[in-house]
Specification:
acyltransferase activity, transferring groups other than amino-acyl groups; 7-stranded mixed sheet; hydrolase activity; GNAT_dom; 511 residues; Nitrilase/N-carbamoyl-D-aminoacid amidohydrolase; 2 domains; Acyl_CoA_acyltransferase; 22 strands; Aminopeptidase
Amino acid sequence: MDTNSIENIELKYLTVDDFKELKAATLESYAGVLTSYWKKKHIKALTTMFPEGQVVIKVDGDIAGCALSLIVDYDSIEDEHTYQDIISGESFKNHNADGDVLYGIDVFIKPQYRGLRLGRRLYDYRKEVCENLNLKSIVFGGRMPNYYKHKALTPKQYIEKVKRKEIHDPVLNFQISNDFHPIRVLKNYLEGDTASNEYAVLMEWDNIYYEKPSKKASTVKTVVRLGLIQWQMRPYKGLDDLMEQAEYFIDSVAAYRADFAVFPEFFNAPLMAEFNHMHEPDAIRELAKFTETIVNKLKQLSISYNINIISGSMPEVVNDKLYNVGYLCRRDGSLERYEKIHVTPDEAKVWGMQCGNKLQTFETDCGKIGILICYDSEFPELSRLLADEGMDILFIPFLTDTQNGYSRVRLCAQARAVENECYVAISGSVGNLPNVNNMDIQYAQSAVFTPCDFSFPSNGIKAEATTNTEMILVADVDLSLLRELHSFGAVKNLKDRRKDFYDVIRIKSHK
């Protein structure tokens, strides 16, 4: 059809008044394949029980295509079902307004209007309905109109060849290109469909925004506000003085209704000044004696300021071994511990720091998070394991003394955001501690990184602090954009991994 002659294309709800034109369009579209059409009573029933599920697309006032659908409770439908099972002998009694799946029962475009991508408009409309009604997915039995040419193949073999573009099937190719995927083959699905040998492919499109209804009050957020604390290293009179400064920053980010307050690695290092006369390994073990008190105080602050606090990291002695650890203090009062898996050569040589073995994601009221301490961010296997557990946000408290060290953390953090399709927040310290051995000058620019795709900043930087300046950085991240990225991104790093060729595994003894 000459597109230059088209003046108007519109999508409209189907009405009973459209019956005669719809009948003619149906017979024309299915000519030589199916001879049946919807009766007037069917159109009346469908448009009464589920009007938003029945639409036509009109070109200059004439019906060019149609899409009809029901809402079903999918658990009540047998896996092996037929088309008649779904429409219940044309009584549509399977329609359930409280169901969880949109089931497509008819869709067509008249021959003279094919090639204008009108079918895509109908599919896109169905997706909007699915999202707006909070349904889990769209399903339908898809025909295989070219299967009769390849009857020597099993339906499974035929589908695989279609997916590999070795066989062209206009229906399956179109559905796959519109993000539908095969679930199973249905035998004897549509009586009279000889071209498909009466087989159909049950196709599905998943609604990534679906939220399972709950009777409990839910506070899980999709837009999460991060508060990064770019901490100034300076002398403090003692623990109370340091915690007063920590509370000041917590108060500051909480005033902006941040969901997380993130401290840097070894933010409590100024307290080592009191032990600077000691040998370095002894001095840091003295610092470790403050850890329990600091964690308890941060836990209290997380409750009183209604904010999740990531404590950065602190030294801790367990069974006479020194570790670099941190704590997640949730605002509900619960506490979680994490460890630095890879200690730097300097930490091992100067302090005798031991490598940790604890790695996990943490459930929060703002999604699933992961936490890696500084050097750990430079080992992509760790964040990949966390991504496999469904991590949305990766937090990296760090401490670097030179721009070289900072660049390693920053660049690796940005890579982690891209390869794991997640947000990454890094929080570091600035300033200097001339009165603490092995803690000289700090270099930092705290930042929040994103994947690089159309819904995110093109350079992957959501926000960043001023270099080497004491401040807070507050930024919002939208978790729903990650769900969209996982399914519809320009590239799909998580889905496209060649797990048949390589994988990242965790040794069982370290789980």
